[in-house]
Amino acid sequence: MNISTNTALQEQIQDLKAHEKIIGLVPTMGALHEGHLSLVNFAYQYCDVVVVSIFVNPTQFNNSGDLEKYPRNFEKDYQLLISNNPKTIVYTPSINHVYGEDVKAEEFDFGSIVSYMEGQYRQGHFNGVGTVLKRLFAIVKPHKAFFGEKDFQQLQLVKKLVEITQQPVEVIGSPTLRMPNGLAESSRNYRLTPAEVEEASLIYKALSQAKTMFNDFSINEIKSSIQDLFEDHQLLELEYFEVAPTSTLIPAQTKKTHLNYRAFIAAYIRDVRLIDNLALN
């Protein structure tokens, strides 16, 4: 079913909770793909009913051009979700339903997890993400919320947000769904030609190379190797490649044996910005 008002959604959820149903939330901005469906199906392993919100959040775009270019196709998204699982509640609020009159981002202290990588290159982005999620959690009141590991920095931010705001939501991460060539499923892939989709497989190749090198090479050697890989490639421009412990997300210069590390990458193909990450150990 599709619900667009907060009142109707809250009535539905109160009724489900009265029948002791576990409610999950998968927040999206639409332009849905197989990665989203994989996340919804993952959520159904934990929940009786999943609410999928479709809301293009204006406060998380630090580039107004990106906001305008963001693909929107509600009818296609809705059919995809309902044919995947008819129990799914599709929540499509207006800006007014989420923000009221006050369409601006709150300031949060997320600490080091937003200081680098996406936080460094997309100023203000994470405050916008935190603001909309705080509001969606308050409206939907889910027991659990689900996020893909493709946006690993965002996943860590959401865990921190719930800690800061003390909202009673369990945050669960789901593994990244990849295309056959390794490219992470993303709404931005819609803007690539088939040839560019193949070229963009370099991003996953770079992450895989970092994983292969991780035990035997220093972080500087790994970074240098990845930079060489991109310098040999005409179509993709590397924005950043970092190795960071998952606990702090502060880019590391040296490895410590007791920490878990991930590689993080952002690259452009034309004006399309793609991000990805991979566990290294």
UniProtKB/TrEMBL annotation:
Belongs to the pantothenate synthetase family. Its EC number is 6.3.2.1. It is an enzyme of class 6 (ligase). This is Pantothenate synthetase. It comes from Psychroflexus salarius. GO terms for molecular function: ATP binding; pantoate-beta-alanine ligase activity. ATP binds at residues 29-36, 148-151, 177, 185-188. Homodimer. GO terms for cellular component: cytosol.
